[in-house]
Amino acid sequence: MLADAVRAEGYRLGRNRTALFWSLIFVPVMSVVLGAIGAVMVKGSEAKLSEATGIPPQLQAMFAATPINLADSLVSAAASAANPAVLLFLLIGAATLYAGDYRWETWRLISARNSRPNLLLGKLTVVAGLALGVLVLMLIAGLIESVIRAGVFDRSVTFRADAGQIGDMAALFGLSWLRVVQFAMIGLLAAVMTRSLLAALFIPLAVGVGQALSPQMLMPAGVMPTDWLAILVNPGAATDAIGGALRALPLAPAPEPGLMLKSWISLLLWTALPLAAALAWFQRQDLSKE
Amino acid sequence: MEFVIETRGLTKTYGRVRALDGLDLTIPRGGVYGVLGPNGAGKSTLFRILLGLIRPSSGTAQVMGGPVGDLAHMRRTGSMIETPRFPPYLTARQVLEWLAREHGLKTPDIPHWLERVGLSQAADRRVRGFSVGMLQRLGVAAALMSRPDLVILDEPTSGMDPPGIQEMRALIRSLATDDGVTVILASHQLLEVQRVCDRVAILDKGKLVREGAVSELTAVGERLRLMVSAPDRALELLGGKGQVEGQAVLAQIPRGEGPALIRALVGRDIDIHEARWVGSDLESVFFTETGAVQAPEADHAG
Q: Is pLDDT of B300 > 50?
């Protein structure tokens, strides 16, 4: 049963403290630490900065008197949660989970008593949960960072959110989570095809770099960033397009007609295809070779 | 008779190599069944197919009355293939906790199984420090924990010290006799197989070359070994059925003729110091059937 596979993978991951630390704890903690250091450094060079930017003291005083709205911090954190650092370190935990049974030759202990799709989906479910966990921690890290910034700059904090803002935050959070899970799916496919932990870690990263560079590679061929092909090969751009539309920032240009459809199709393809390929490959795989 | 394993024309090829070559094998329910064969005979390939780890190139295999891969039947099977490995960050207890979840067991009684394989003292040690023998024991506990009707063990005593081998042998026997579990094991230790198994199959080059009860296989070539006061006269009495082996006379006669021979020897005033039946052991059956070359025994006298 799938529930058994999820319970077992969750139990195993829960006891792997190294994987948990790197994939779940490290990035949010570093995000807070680096945010605090950044705030202190900016505060230290505040006088020089205001001199260089020429902001009048009255405006600075008005700015300092404005409280930091933690709801805004949450929306920003939700939008930027699927950043490369989160992806890289989450993939450490995901790769451990995906490739562990090849590495430790443990398929032979478990594969006779559960269906192969269940075993793979169990791993994926736990990784998706891990991704959810790290994104929630990133939101908390965003809040802590804002409170620290408020303390460093002598500003007060407030939490003012309307229903629309909460909706934006939830939607952006969901989008970030989907983006992370996409990479986790590519990691799953890489692990199943290569049986290698390193491949499960680095192939998704290489794919991510390729996606990010795709606009520059396609432009010379006359493919514009909002063309079908460009959006299909770059789900990152699709995520940005959907995220931009969700946030509907003031003064932002209206999205090109059809861009949302292309973006959603790109996201769905990059989510479903690696999973389907991994399941199909695993279904026929010789599990006696480790 | 009910069978726990039934294969028909089971074939597995790896490129040009035929690891299994049309294997027809039926293993009855109950007792301990040994699968023997030299390296490359197809034992591990057979086990891996039975456990659904690999697919046969052709032929069929049934486990517990259902096709391989049918979870309802496969869930009645426990297994340990070669020396098991486990995630090194887990303790022995955690390995069983993890596998109990994987197998959907509600009440796995882990302390009982750790005790039964002699790992109670090491229950909370991480497996990264375990010896091969300890890993074997943990693998056996993992195979038994779900209280299966059929247990498949590949080299269960590999890497164990002599007391460990003895304990494992006793455990395997008690599984069959006390718990009613059918145990199928592969081992290179023929003496161990002879001691623990009720029936054996001998595979060679992917084919079944011999199958039967251990007592039947070893009964072939059984002889009465006699230590007598006058070997020459005893040989004369036996005619062509006798031969000398050291100080003893070996009589190649059926068991039923043993008492008459002894009466005849006594009747001729030949003193009998010792008389016992000696069979051919499983080792000689194995070497005969597989054509493997038996290493000459060291001549300690010289």
A: no
The candidate with the shortest Cα–Cα distance to A184, out of A165, A201, A209, is A201
Does the CB of A125 have a partner CB in chain B at under 8 Å? no
Query: What digits encode the pLDDT tens for the residues B64-120?
Result: 888 887 888 888 888 888 788 899 999 999 999 999 998 888 878 899 999 988 899
User: Residue ranges of the domains in chain A?
Assistant: 2-283
Which pLDDT value is given to residue B301?
36
Q: With contacts defined as CB-CB under 8 Å, which chain B residues touch A106?
A: 84-87
Q: Does A287 touch chain B (CB under 8 A)?
A: yes
Which has the closest alpha carbon to B13: B76, B49, B56?
B56
Q: Does A114 touch chain B (CB under 8 A)?
A: yes
Predicted confidence band of residue B179 (pLDDT cuts 50, 70, 90):
confident
Instruction: Name every chain B residue with its beta carbon within 8 A of the beta carbon of A11.
Output: 94, 97-98, 101
Contact B102 A110 (CB under 8 A): yes
Q: Are A9 and A123 in contact (CB under 8 A)?
A: yes
pTM: 0.80
What is the pLDDT, as a whole number, of residue A251?
59
Provide the pLDDT for residue A250.
Answer: 60
List, in sequence order, every residue forming a beta bridge with B14; answer none if it has no partner. Answer: B17
Any A CB within 8 A of B51 CB? yes
Q: What is the pLDDT of residue A198?
A: 92
State whether B103 and A12 contact (CB < 8 Å).
no
| Domains of chain B with CATH codes | 3-217 (3.40.50.300), 222-278 (3.30.70)
Instruction: Give one DSSP letter per residue of chain A, joined into a string.
Output: -HHHHHHHHHHHHHT-HHHHIIIIIHHHHHHHHHHHHHHHHHHHTHHHHHHHHT--HHHHHHHHHSPEEHHHHHHHHHHH-S-HHHHHHHHHHHHHHHHHHHHTT-HHHHTTSS-HHHHHHHHHHHHHHHHHHHHHHHHHHHHHHHHHHHHHTT--EE----HHHHHHHHHHHHHHHHHHHHHHHHHHHHHHHH--HHHHHHHHHHHHHHHHHHHHHHGGGT--TTSHHHHHH-HHHHHHHHHHHHHT-TTPPPPPTTHHHHHHHHHHHHHHHHHHHHHHHHHT--TT--
